[in-house]
Design brief:
Blueprint: H1 3-40, H2 46-60, H3 64-79, H4 85-110, H5 114-122, H6 127-157, H7 169-180, H8 184-215, H9 226-247
């Protein structure tokens, strides 16, 4: 590998760092938006529910790529605010995926048993205290699996920023391909890199999910895969046969 080629491959490593940064920043913004809008959609005032629902419909129904272009090209012309490409992409991805996440939050909050809310009222908790101490701790474990899916989709969606010239992995791969003329090894490598990042995120979210369930007394059984299910079914069949034999 020549020095020039090695320098080109360094672009891919630098792009990896940009992808990680973009994922973290967008996920943080999306989480704030998801909880704010999702909880607002359960508010007792209709105007709050209407405005939060309007936000969700608008940003869920628009393209994240077009929103990036609007924030980067139209916003300076309309308001005189020029955003860096990285921050325009972060804002677009965070607002878009936050709209999807708001539905996850709303569904999980509304799935909490009404008896739990009534218990909070009986304890003279304010609405904020009921949400913070009773509802969210029980809804949080139910949010994590769909949040995991959204986080993986967000990671893959960061490749859109390469169109704006942001030096992420996809942009670095494009430069390497143009310089070397090699497509197969370059895009195979970034496929593997995206998979490794997604796998790490998934394992991390699984750990968070187990801890969240443990805190509310729902410790998940380890090894809950297909093999354990088959073993459980086999034990159930054996117990049924033994019960039938005892009845005879």
């Amino acid at each position: 590998m020549s020095e020039i080629t090695w320098g080109l491959w360094q672009l891919l490593l630098e792009g990896l760092w940009v992808t990680v940064q973009l994922t973290v920043y967008s996920a943080a913004l999306g989480a704030v938006v998801a909880f704010t809008v999702g909880i607002a959609r359960t508010h007792r005032l209709w105007i709050v529910r209407f405005l939060s629902g309007l936000y969700m419909e608008i940003f869920r129904g628009t393209s994240a790529l077009v929103l990036m272009f609007w924030l980067f090209f139209v916003l300076p012309v309309a308001f005189g605010w020029q955003l860096l490409p990285l921050w325009a992409a972060t804002l677009a991805l965070g607002l878009s995926y936050g709209a999807y996440g708001s539905e996850v939050v709303r569904g999980a909050v509304q799935a909490v048993s009404p008896a739990q809310r009534e218990a909070g009222i009986a304890l003279s908790f304010t609405p904020m205290q009921r949400m913070r101490r009773i509802i969210l701790p029980q809804a949080w474990p139910e949010m994590l699996p769909p949040f995991n899916n959204l986080l993986i989709e967000l990671l893959k969606g960061t490749a859109l920023v390469s169109i704006m010239g942001v030096g992420d992995m996809a942009f670095g791969a494009s430069l390497i391909r143009n310089a070397t003329g090699e497509s197969a090894p370059v895009y195979t490598i970034i496929l593997v890199m995206y998979f490794v990042l997604a796998f790490v995120l998934t394992r991390g979210m699984r750990v968070v999910e187990r801890q969240a369930k443990t805190r509310i007394g729902q410790r998940p059984a380890k090894g809950g895969g297909l093999l354990s299910k088959l073993n459980l079914r086999e034990r159930t069949d054996i117990s049924a046969d033994a019960a039938g034999a005892g009845g005879i």
